[in-house]
Amino acid sequence: MALSGRPTGLGSAALALYAAYLVTPMALILVGSVGGVWSNTLLPAGLTGRWFETLLANPTFQKAFITSLWVCAATVVACILIGAPLAYAVATARSPALAMFGRILYLTPVAAPAVVLGFGYMLAFSTDALPFLGAGWLTVAAHVVVCLPYFLQTLVADLKLQGVEVLEQAAESLGAPFHRRFLDMVLPGLVHSIASASILVAALSIGEFQLTNLIAGFLHRTYPIVLLQAFYGATGFACAATVVLLALALLAAMAGALVARGATAGRGGIA
Amino acid sequence: MSVTLDQVSFAYPGGGAGVRDIALEIREGELLAVIGPSGCGKSTILKLIAGFLMPQSGRVTIAGEDMTHVPPRKRDLGIVFQNYALFPHMTLAENVGYALKLRQVPASEAGGRVREALGMVGLGHLADRLPRSLSGGQQQRVALARALVFRPRALLLDEPLSALDATLRGEMRDEIARLQRLHGIATLHITHDQEEALSMAHRVAVMREGRILQVDTPERLYARPANRTVAAFVGLANLFDGIVLDALNVRTPLGDLACGAHPFPRGMAVTVLIRPEVIRPAESANGPNRFAGSVTRDRFLGALRRFDFTLPGGQCLRIETESHVAPPSAIELPPFAVQVIATGQEGAERSAATTDDNPAVPA
């Protein structure tokens, strides 16, 4: 039921406009990926599957796709290993100053543009002392820096919502040492938010371009980096290559939405 | 086993209200309630005993052992938290059995004890449920079972009934008191509800601004409050400034009143306490301690009736009578009902801390 006085028609129109703005480019890319010739026309002429065939046969794209997958997987694992304890430390910090320091520290990568981080990495890791620019692990480390804030935001909010401090006190009063409290109370309570935050991290990592473009070497180029090259060739090929990335991102978003729904349904804070 | 706080002081780093020079004993088998307004430090006392806070001075002993710097997990105390703090991802049986698992109690024995504990609170049939499927009262019972199953040395209750509705609160008061007596366990009960404290506890400590003002049995706390602050906090009270005339008379804004015996010297500024239920309706104002006036407010409270009785000079007394009593035109203050008590903190020194003259804990 609409609230009286609310301009629902205007809202619907704005929503439709936004949806069109969001969907139109994706629809055009989808059409272009199966279109024959597309030059100076609104839509391509003809229907073909050859752009996907070409893409599948291209070793550069194959390698970049695999690189993207393992960089993404490694980033997710690193975010979980670093992020879960860090989120716990921030959420349960007794000193407000310490909590604020932690918050600033992990939010800095969000505030600093990726290009700034990229230049920093280039300066730091292209020296004789630290000649790691182009190394695969450095790309993973850079992705972790970019993705960790989003991972932490999700977990810290969830920990506070659960009232984890009181649960821990309860466990401690029953005799649980720190490691048991973390394993028995904190982690099980975070399963859903770790899952949804991991999917967010995966989506961010798969699409990350700016920072990776500056630091990834020739051997460890990720999919978005080689995708840029595709735009210098045939439009249909570029569209087909983009569709693959789009499909991955959509899959991640859908999985994230499903996990978030499961987390909401199974939510149990302090009972 | 008893729990003792010996001159314990604690101040929060940010300057929040802490506690000062707390001397308090929870005796073996006793349920001691701590009451006081919000921010008076009563929850701080619980946290100091539990070990969640470390005192800056003083000692905390449990069963005679100095526990001041022992971490909470080694104190063997059962705690029931305000919001129950049941583990949401564990079933009731897992919640209750968690302490036994940590103590590596064999599975067969642990299972029996968990069943016994849940049966004791009437929830044995819900052992496989998750906490979120229970009502507030049921969750409270599980929290109690969890706190008692490992046979702790003492039980700490942190406003355990504050999240329940009035009907359930009444039931749970009796349930907690029953379990506490059944286990004969030293219990600290933090509450802001004086009715809850008076009805459940063997003794009650009244706190204000980080200090204990009086520790006494509920009856004596009500009948003989140590000072004006305690009198005002526990039950309804008519309180007036007074000057002692002699051992049996006191000057008040109502006039000179015959009063009960008191230890204060002539000329001392005191507080005069008259409980509303001891004021009697009178047929006339002729005679000592009698006053004419009119009822300016009449509240029907079911079994009781509460009047505001205003004297010609503007002084107002609150009176409680049985509900069938008509509004009086005159009242009598029996001398025994006119109590002379200390105005400031000095009266608290008599009964704060551990009072040896208090009766033993009932069996």
Number of domain units of chain A: 1
Tell me the β content of chain A. Answer: under 5%
Q: Which word captures the global form of chain A?
A: globular
Level of helix content of chain B? Answer: 10-25%
> What is the CATH topology assignment of chain A?
MetI-like fold
Find the CATH superfamily of the largest domain in chain B. P-loop containing nucleotide triphosphate hydrolases
**Which structural category do the helix and sheet elements of chain A fall into?**
mainly alpha
User: What is the CATH top level name of the largest domain in chain B?
Assistant: Alpha Beta
Gyration radius over CA of chain B: 24 Å
Largest interface: A-B, 22 and 30 residues
Q: How many β-strand runs of chain A?
A: 2
The count of domains of chain B is: 2
Strand pairing plus helix content of chain B: what structural class? alpha+beta
**Structural Rg of chain A:** 23 Å
Sequence of secondary-structure elements of chain B? EEEHEEEHHHEHEHEEHHEEEEEEEEEEEH
Helix content of chain A: over 70%
Describe this structure in words.
- The complex is a heterodimer of chains A (about 270) and B (about 375).
- Chain A is mostly helical and about 270 residues long.
- Chain A has one domain (about 50-265): MetI-like fold.
- Chain A is built from 11 helices and 2 strands; from the N terminus they run H-E-E-H-H-H-H-H-H-H-H-H-H.
- Chain A starts with 7 loop residues before the first helix and ends in a 6-residue tail after the last helix.
- The model of chain A is unreliable at about 265-270 (pLDDT under 50).
- Chain B has a 6-stranded mixed sheet, with helices on both faces.
- Chain B has helices spanning about 40-50, 90-100, 105-120, 135-150, 165-185, 195-200, 220-225, 230-235, 350, and strands at about 5-10, 20-25, 30-35, 55-60, 65, 75-80, 155-160, 185-190, 205-210, 210-215, 240-245, 250, 255-260, 270-275, 280, 290, 295-300, 305-310, 315-320, 330, 340.
- Mean pLDDT of chain B is about 85; it is low at about 345-363.
